[in-house]
Structures
1.
Amino acid sequence: MITKRPRGTNDLLPAQTSRWQWVEEMVRKTSSSYGYQEIRTPMFEHTELFERGIGEATDIVEKEMYTFSDRGDRSITLRPEGTAPVVRAFLENKLYAQPLPAKLFYMGPMFRYERPQAGRYRQHTQFGVEALGSADPALDLEMITLPISVYQACGLEGFSVNINSIGCPQCRPAYREVLLQALRSVEDELCGSCRSRMERNPLRVLDCKVPNCRAATANVPAMVESLCGDCGDHFSVLTTLLDRLDIAYVNNPRLVRGFDYYTKTVFELTVPSLGAQDAVGGGGRYDGLVEECGGPSLPGVGFAVGIERLLLALEQQGNQDFPQSRLDGFVVHFGGATKSEAVALVHELRRSGLQIEMDYQDRSLKAQMKAANRLGVRWVAILGGDEWERRVLNVRWMDEGSASEVSLDRAAEVLLRAKEEQD
């Protein structure tokens, strides 16, 4: 019996990886154009990092983390998100001593034990960006425009921007009491999860997707009505900048995000065609996280995008224009001395920068031509006994349906020039 992959994971086969590589290239190009540099952190961290950073009362910490004890009896967790590890690396490697803000991006697998569904897996891939060391609302704007630029580069359409402000430690406590009082009046109408988290983290009740809970909390006071002067000014500057750039957005008072570290700005980008789980990315400001992780009091802001969700949205919109990698050529031989010559030729052509394949099963000419057709190569170079004696290749140009002879001594030069002209 064949062992199957764990539930909530996927194999990316060669036909799919070209799409991933293309999206990853768009991510890297766009992030670099905004001045962000790539950072890579371990796939597992000490559990305390996520308990302190994300918040012990969050669904992720309570229910979804892959946590285990290593051989040294240390509690280790596969990273469920990327921000806390980046902040840890920022502090441990003293990046705060360099000019700020530190502008970093990452891409890699995250792990959450949740119910698998379309575009949401227990091992999924996130692309994220973090800017550490500045409280400027212009950076909040940048965290919204950067993923928009990625989506536009990938050809995604029909996405919307939702924004909100959830205040700061100065103004949020007062709002918490106002919200809690409103929630207690409708407590009997809330689902079990909302009732259990209501006293610990009432803001999370606003994010519940259960229809009864949304109806029961439809008229609760909005956080923006309780913002302090600093938070109100910050949000006002952000909306003014969004208007200045003609970026359409929705003020969504129910948007709170799922992590405790967020302050002030939160935002989410959604694609309605994805259904109930329509988010393709989101983030916000986390001005207390660096200090919470043991560092100086430095502000931060960031976002994350699920690559699987982005690819799903592109596919649903009929965007099949993913570039496909294509082999340049296939060298056909007839065994014996021609095979030895073909091996040497393939090696030379690959060193010149061409992508080449050959037959390794000593198949017939007809079978080798079929294999070349299946691979979709640009040309087939036939090296038979007659060609070998005359030191030439019989090159069949597959797209044009024509053929020509090329000197073996000049094969790399001629075939490379032909590729450059076609490209």
2.
Amino acid sequence: MKQFLLDKFDYQVTCDEARTDTEVTFEKTDGTLSVYLTAKADRPQFVTLQWRFETEEDLFVLGDIWERSYGNLCFKRLSENNRPLPWYFAATNKSETFCFGVKTQPNAFVCFFYDENGVTATIDCRNGGSGVKLDGRTVKLCTFVFARYALPPFESLCAYCRTLCDHPLLPKEKIYGGNNWYYAYGESSYAENVSDAKLQAELAEGIANRPFMVIDDGWELDGFLGPYEPNEKYGDMKALAEEIKSLGVRPGIWARLLDNQEADITPDMRILRGGERIYLDPTNKKAQALIVSYIEKMRSWGYELLKHDFSTYDLFGDFGKKLTDRITNYTDWHFADETKTNAEIVLDFYRLIKDACGDMLVLGCNTVSHLCAGLVHINRTGNDTSGREWACTRDNGVNTLAFRLAQNNAFYMVDADCVGILNDNIPWEKNRQWLDVLSKSDTALFVSCDRLNDEQKADMINAYREIQKDHRIQPLDIYDNPIPSEWEIDGRIVTYQWE
């Protein structure tokens, strides 16, 4: 990319109808380019920038993903790279690496395409599936950042990610402990969570930084959706939080804040998309108040961590694995407030949650990675691992740990998901390796189990002590292996047998 000049590009604007009054302006500083958009009557949808140049060699290219990854992150040769690259990408010849992307918390969704003819960036400034109604307002859509490093690609990407997020929101201590999803899968109770907390207390005995016990989906009246009141198996959620705390364990709780089927929710509080009104519209004031009331209730019960889930799906209609270069596959719809871009709406929603949580930790799941940076303490960067199928843990967990590890402590604390232990479904020699690499990754470590044999317990006790330390870690065989086996940990080469 020797011929690349950040301020030498062509651009075009796409609106709902013919463009009449849309203006795009640019502000260049050393290594950055900010893009501003103004429109009065027009309803702009996209601003597309194209940098034309020839690439001298067949580089290795790695991109990011809109929300969680789905085992699909990998380096590809430039000649084979026809993928959309959300947010940023890195290209390398293994000795020199250049990175190109946008700063976190932009006011638009940004996706790149890179081929032998140059780079195209699509800035999606829509509201829902339609153009945004700015009414004369000027919005800063994004800030592009270009950097070149004479470093190996993983080190380059680590350095680059730290230039993208000015104010990461990070936990003060290492995050670890239990989560009941991958052994219970929604079938749990008050008593079982107390038992889970007792196990966590035993595993973390003598550690000053206390573990969490996160109660995942299944505690509420109707699984996967509100109203957020406990079902008969759980009963008093405040008493449960207090009992967990009495054991020296920190209680956490799960919620899907935009899916609520309470009878008194009026139609205007829901998004109209695809002819249906299902999910709460976070631009509606009454919906916002309801969301805040639920979070405040959970906080008053004494929970110290909120895991909020499903928001990308509920807002835009699909999981990330079905999205390409655009955040929604639905067209001709909009939010109640049509004056803000989709990215602005997501940012406002995440800020609403963060502010309502107060001193609670916020763990995002199915959250938009570049938008939640600085607004969640911990982010689930990959799709679900499993207590039933090793392939899910291997493909989703190991892949996201390797290829999004550069975001750890730069955007947020990475959560590559749980070590799931359910009966003997997954051989311990496999799960032990997943536990080991997580415990030395400086990311969050959650384990989902209700019982352990002596061997598992000994390994878990050791892992809980390892995670309290600081480690230096990087994947090595990343060019031709989406599930890297070779890792450098504290200067030592470790080979894992994932297959």
3.
Amino acid sequence: MRLWTQTPKLTLSAIPAYILFFVVAFAPLPFGSYDKGTVAVWCGILGLAAAATSLSNFPLRRGHLLLLAGIGLIVLFYAFVLHEQLSDHPWIAKPHPIWAQTSKVLGVDIVPSVSIVRGEPFFALGPTIACVLSLICGLIVGTDRDRARQLLHVIAWSGAAYAVYGILSYLIEPTMLLWREKRAYAGNLTGTFVNRNTAAAYFGSCAVVWLAILLEQTRRHLRMDKIVWKKVPARLVTATPRSLIVSFSMFFICLMAMFLTSSRAGVVLSLLALMVTFIVYFRRDLPPRSGIWIALGASGLVALALLQFLGGAVSNRFDVQGLADEGRLAAYLSTIRMIADYPWFGTGLGTFAWSFPAYRSAEISMWGVWDIAHNTPLELASEVGLPLASAVCIGWLVAASVLVNGIRVRNRDVIIPLAAFSVSIIANLHSWIDFSLQIPGYAIIVFALVGAGLSQSFPGAATHSARRRSKSASKISTTA
């Protein structure tokens, strides 16, 4: 099976594309790229890719330029907030009162700061820069349908490779994480990630991408203008192509790795995204009235069967611990109180671990340190303020609407915006109850795929490669 259906020629556009592919393939490897040094390396490499896109002839359309302008506005908003948090003389923001209190206690004049920890927003900016660069590179590189499909396959194959490693590591030496000893989740598969929940979101996302590829191959193999569902089993059994078998095997491997993480939210949201992918892809082949409900019921039963037979550990966690961990709701309410006290500019990007103890509810167990809110939107609002956090949420809503429209209007290459939309479902919904989008090794992949999906959501975006090949062919024939 080839990595992609059409291998583009090596041109100037290949430079940023292959740099992006490299980052997407290896970002999960070094423990989810959680440490700041690794993030800095990815920022540098993605910066080179973004710079190289300006030298390449990518077919940017009006819609692409509008999306880039929207990203630019959010970046400027970030820059303004960071200026206020880092500057000794902010323009409009008020300094955090802790500096005046400290100055009074010590009897020493201390230059105040909006951030509760001086300079921390600058050092915490790395993951945000990496995600923005990944989104921009995915958006620009994804304007070429061949490159967009390559990106989809790179994500799928690298995910399958990490899933194989994760399963083998889980079976052979479950107490080791790469070359280090696991400090937590020794009985669960985490792949190359430290946290099982992030691993579940990642492998679930890779399973979604493989399912999209598998559905496209199945549709091509059936060779039906309108699918007759009664004939599908016989068609699939008869002369099943090797590519279909390989894709299903990789899909199943990613699915197994996802279940072995034992993450409740990661598994459930991934199953939801898989259902969405299947139903949306075949929506035009379903009966007009009851088809959606039948497909929803059938896919739901399949999801429950998979959860019952392959996700025994997940079901056991639901039985023992219920739907949520102890203290989560109290932590969310405490974070909301923090936001209420500093609604405009927050307490400083990356300062949640220092700010939260003053708001920690008595209902939360004294055991452990809450250095992450387990709710990315709330944590972001507490660190940078409600206006910027709202702008980021609006950006995600705009991206989702563009992807939905792309799914609606596209026939060819619909799996690219579809995969991006389904993966964004996992990433965004999971971020409301955990922190998977705060792990660069996963977030970089999500943003790159969403960028490519946005690019391929515009009518006619897929025709550039065909026009380019036809021009090349005409030049050759003229020369001959």
